[in-house]
């Protein structure tokens, strides 16, 4: 697969992920919150719960935009640059923020409602995935920064 094909594929994946996020945050999560509100005595938490969950979509959207910009640089044959290293760090930071927000929300939800194993499992799963994404992004950021330095040295030598 050539560079153009790779960029198109990556941008297609970004659009697909954005669609999944839109469906989850637009339809799936509000329905789950409504159902949890009906099953418990905490119906007063339904609207604040929807708002709190919606806030967690912001770091995801920022990370997808940063990833789109990385793909654009790859398309311009500028994969290894300091800007991409900063963008990868930004993606890692977004993942950490969202993971922390999810962990705080899970603990808060379990204190307000009767702790249910599915709440803990969902919170733990989201936290593990978020930490894995953050770790991968920070590692790739470091490697891209090293590669950018090597590229810069190589360009100066020629």
Description:
The chain has 158 residues and is mostly helical. The protein has one domain. The chain contains five helices and no strands. α1 runs antiparallel to α2 and α1 packs antiparallel against α3. It starts with a helix and ends with a helix.
Observed structural traits:
5 helices, 87% helix, mainly alpha, 158 residues
Number of helices: 5
Shape: elongated
Radius of gyration of CA atoms, rounded to a whole number: 19 Å
Strand content: under 5%
Poorly predicted regions are none
Q: Topology as H/E string? A: HHHHH
**Count of domains:** 1
Helix content: over 70%
Structural class: mainly alpha
**Whole-number mean pLDDT:** 91
- The total of beta strands comes to 0
Distance between the terminal alpha carbons, to the nearest Å? Answer: 29 Å
User: Please, what is the oligomeric state?
Assistant: single chain
Largest sheet: none
Topology:
Blueprint: H1 3-39, H2 46-55, H3 57-75, H4 82-112, H5 117-157
Short structural description:
The chain is mostly helical. It contains five helices and no strands. The protein is 87% helix and 0% strand.
